[in-house]
Structures are given as C-alpha cells and as structure tokens.
Amino acid sequence: MKYIPKNAIKLRIAAAKRLRTIRRQLQAIDLSISIEINLIFLKITFTAKRRT
Asked: Distance of alpha carbon 39 from its chain centroid, rounded?
C-alpha cells in the first residue's frame, strides 16, 4: 500500500466538493435558461395564434 499524505486527501475532497457545487450551480442555470426559452416560445406561439 502506497502512503498518501493526509493533506493530499483533504485537497482531493475539497476539489470534489467544489466540482459538485459548480455542477449544481450549472444545473440550476440550465434549468432557468430552459424555463426562459420555454416561456419565450409560449409567448411567440400565443401571439402567432392570436394573429391568425
């Protein structure tokens, strides 16, 4: 078994946590963007239906 210093493990855990939080934030941003796009699309279709 190879010896791994404790601070390396701590760094790895910190990096993993950071990646996880970044991924969560990105998912939230993706969700909000998709919701906005859907709202815009609904508005466009609604106005198009009203015109015809």
From this structure: 19
